[in-house]
Design goal:
By secondary structure, this protein is mostly helical. It has one domain (2-144). The chain has seven helices and no strands. The longest helix has 23 residues, at 91-113. It is globular and about 40 Å long.
């Protein structure tokens, strides 16, 4: 399901991304693939680690708590690192890409997550954990490696 979100965002944000000086529009698919992989691994790791507080804060309409800020920072750094190492993208360009993409991804996931009570992780488990709930550890592990 996260793939569907990213495909929709690609259509919505590609115009903004291609306006970034130095951005190679031929890398759009790769950029979205990297962003999706990093977000999935980071969120999946938090799900496996039982860090629901950071996840629920990050994907809520309220202000982030410090754990959510740390998680968001890790996701940002992870995407930037992969864009520069895997695609050879300039760090400044990668940072600008993340500044467009990450808020859009977080916003879409927040919209889905906000349809359930604040303590319900099931939308996140469905998006990032294989869709079988908290007992699908294998599905989450497959997404991490």
């Amino acid at each position: 399901m996260i793939g569907d979100i990213l495909k929709g965002l690609q259509g919505e944000t590609s115009g903004q991304l291609t306006k970034i000086p130095g951005f190679n529009s031929n890398q759009l698919d790769d950029v979205f693939g990297i962003a999706g992989d990093v977000v999935t691994k980071q969120v999946g790791s938090q799900l496996l680690g039982g860090n629901s507080g950071a996840l629920m804060s990050l994907f809520s309409k309220g202000s982030n708590n410090s754990s959510a800020n740390d998680l968001q920072g890790s996701i940002e750094k992870g995407i930037i690192t992969k864009l520069t190492s895997d695609l050879g993208m300039n760090r400044n360009v990668a940072s600008q890409v993340v500044s467009v993409l990450l808020p859009s991804i977080l916003g879409k996931v927040t919209g889905i997550n906000s349809k359930t009570p604040d303590n319900d992780l099931s939308p996140l488990e469905s998006l990032f954990g294989g869709g079988k709930g908290k007992n699908d550890i294998g599905g989450m592990l497959n997404k991490l490696f």
